[in-house]
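Journal club side-thread
Mid-discussion, someone asked how the predicted structure for our own chain would compare to the paper's figures. Pasting it here so we can look after the session.
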Amino acid sequence: GVPITIAFNPEFTMAPLRNLSVDEVHLHLIDEISPGVLRSGSTFLYVLMPMRVNS
């Protein structure tokens, strides 16, 4: 894939991870301006909005 630079608020990123009791979480990314999606199994989905990064 094409390299991208993307940033997420660390508090919003860690919030769902603190409450999960699983060993594997997938972070799905499309590009630097689209939301990231955290998924675990078939029942957990969490949407993360990216922060703007000055390049």
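Post-session note: Residues 10-48 form one domain.
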